[in-house]
UniProtKB/TrEMBL annotation:
Organism encoding this protein: Letharia columbiana
Entry keywords, A to Z: ATP-binding, Cytoplasm, Kinase, Nucleotide-binding, Nucleus, Ribosome biogenesis, rRNA processing, Transferase
Membrane spanning residue stretches: none
EC number: 2.7.4.3
Location within or outside the cell: Cytoplasm; Nucleus
GO biological process, one term: ribosomal small subunit biogenesis
Family: Belongs to the adenylate kinase family. AK6 subfamily.
Database matches in SUPFAM superfamilies: P-loop containing nucleoside triphosphate hydrolases
Pfam family, one: AAA_18
Gene Ontology cellular component annotations, sorted alphabetically: cytoplasm; nucleus
Protein name, UniProt field: Adenylate kinase isoenzyme 6 homolog
UniProt-recorded Gene Ontology molecular function terms: AMP kinase activity; ATP binding; ATP hydrolysis activity
Sequence positions that bind ATP: G15, G17, K18, T19, S20, R111
Amino acid sequence: MPSTQPNIIITGTPGVGKTSHCEVLAANTGLKHLSINQVVRDRGCHDGWDEEYRSWIVDEDKLLDSLEDELAQGGHIIDWHACDLFPKRWIDLVVVLRTDSTKLYDRLKARNYLEQKLQDNLDSEIMEVLLDEARESYDEEIVVELRSDEADDIEVNVGRIKTWIKNWRQDQVEDAA
Ligand SMILES: Nc1ncnc2c1ncn2[C@@H]1O[C@H](COP(=O)(O)OP(=O)(O)OP(=O)(O)O)[C@@H](O)[C@H]1O
C-alpha cells in the first residue's frame, strides 16, 4: 500500500541551513526529522572516525539497512549533505538549499572549521555539487533549489514545502480513488 506521508530530502553544503529548515519543517508538519549524522553515530553505521575531516566514515550499506523500514513507511525529513545513496522509490521530494559563498564562509568560520574543510565546502557550494548530485540521482520534477541566505528564507521555504506536501497528499487521495 502506498504511504500517506512523503519522504523529503533536505540537502546542501554543510552550513547552508539544512538543520534549521528541518527543525521548523518537522514542527510545522509532524514529519519526523532524521538527521543522518545522528543516525550514523547513534546506530554505528560507520567505519570509524576521519580525524582530518572530523567526521564519521559512513558505511552506506549499513546506513540504508538501518533506515529501510522507517523510510518505507514515509513521513520523514532526511537531513544530510549528500542524497544520491537513497533509492528513488523512497524519495518524493529533494530540496537543495543554496547560499551565497560569503554567508557560507561566515557560518563555517563561526563553527571553527579547519581551513581546508572550509575551502572544500565553499568550492562545493560554488560548483553546485549537491544540486548536480540531486539532478543526476532523481527525476527532474522532484528536485527543487531554494535559497537560504536570510533568516526569513526559512519561513518562506517551509511554507512552500508545506504547500507541496498538501498537494502531494491530495494527489495520493485522488490516485487511490
Ligand atoms: N537562512 C539562513 N539565514 C541565516 N542564517 C542561517 C540560515 N540558515 C542557517 N543559518 C545559520 O547557519 C548556521 C548553520 O546552519 P545549519 O546547522 O542549519 O546548517 P546545516 O546545513 O544543517 O549544516 P551541517 O550540514 O553542518 O549540519 C547556523 O548558525 C544557522 O543559524
